[in-house]
């Protein structure tokens, strides 16, 4: 039986991504144990979603700190107390820079095909508005590992979504969110199966779990 990943979820809003993960976790379709949900806003409904499922939840409000650095320090300290196997960003609207020991263990989902329509200021409906205004025919969702900048970490999975002629930001968002609900759990399962290997800016997916583990051990020795 696969060991469940001790997981921390960071969010800033309603928690629809969190709810998707909770539903799959409780159905036995996702090998994670959510140890803590942290919100950057006191009024985020995602906190209520967590508590409804008996998951510990805490608000660390950005507004309570004099600087982003102080906020990030408190956030990193709280995450460290949990000692998670995986950190999942689920609509977390701020930059998070944890200790380097978490490199390759933090995931985010972005509502576009990175490297297009991403970076600081491009989140939520801002992304879909920019996509429609640009006239592109394809958008989508991207799951990636998190590094020290917005949306620049190695890409794990992507799924394309057609942009229709009569799309509004709301209608496009609905289909992109459907793609997110599919590929985010898929990426987490691959991580749990130890099948993701980061090589520079690329993430390679191993077909053989044991072979991937062996390669990672060799890389660790070399480093």
What brief labels describe this structure?
single chain; 223 residues; alpha/beta; Rossmann fold; seven-stranded mixed β-sheet; two-stranded antiparallel ribbon; 6 helices; disordered C terminus
Description:
With 223 residues, the chain is an alpha/beta fold. The chain has a single domain, classed as Rossmann fold. Helices cover 37% and strands 23% of the residues. It contains 6 helices and 9 strands. The strands form 2 sheets. A 7-stranded mixed β-sheet has the order 3-2-1-4-5-6-7, sandwiched between helices. The chain has a two-stranded antiparallel ribbon with strand order 8-9. The C terminus is likely disordered.
CATH architecture: 3-Layer(aba) Sandwich
Structural class: alpha/beta
Instruction: Please give the share of residues in helix.
Output: 25-40%
How many domains? 1
Topology, please?
Blueprint: E1 5-11, H1 16-26, E2 32-39, H2 45-52, E3 57-59, H3 68-82, E4 86-89, E5 106-110, H4 125-134, E6 138-145, E7 155-162, H5 169-192, E8 196-199, E9 202-205, H6 209-222
Parallel strand pairs: 1-2, 1-4, 2-3, 4-5
Antiparallel strand pairs: 5-6, 6-7, 8-9
Helix pairs in contact: 4-5
């Amino acid at each position: 039986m696969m060991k469940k990943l001790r997981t921390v979820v960071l969010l800033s809003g309603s928690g629809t991504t969190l709810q998707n993960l909770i539903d799959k976790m409780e159905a036995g379709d996702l090998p994670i144990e959510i140890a803590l949900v942290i919100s950057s806003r006191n009024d985020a409904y995602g906190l209520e979603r967590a508590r409804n499922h008996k998951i510990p939840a805490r608000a660390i409000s950005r507004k309570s700190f004099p600087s982003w650095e102080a906020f990030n320090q408190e956030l990193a300290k709280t995450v460290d107390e949990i000692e998670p196997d995986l950190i999942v960003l689920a609509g977390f609207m701020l930059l998070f820079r944890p200790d380097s020991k978490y490199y390759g263990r933090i995931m985010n989902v972005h509502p576009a095909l990175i490297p297009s329509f991403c970076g600081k200021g491009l989140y939520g409906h801002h992304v879909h508005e920019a996509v429609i205004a640009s006239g592109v025919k394809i958008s989508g969702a991207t799951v990636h590992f998190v590094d020290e900048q917005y949306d620049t970490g190695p890409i794990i999975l992507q799924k394309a979504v057609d942009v229709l002629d009569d799309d509004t930001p709301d209608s496009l968002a609905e289909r992109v969110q459907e793609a997110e609900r599919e590929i985010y759990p898929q990426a987490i399962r691959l991580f749990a199966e130890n099948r993701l290997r980061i090589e520079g800016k690329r993430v390679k997916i191993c077909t053989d779990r044991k072979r991937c583990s062996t390669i990672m051990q060799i890389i660790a020795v070399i480093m």
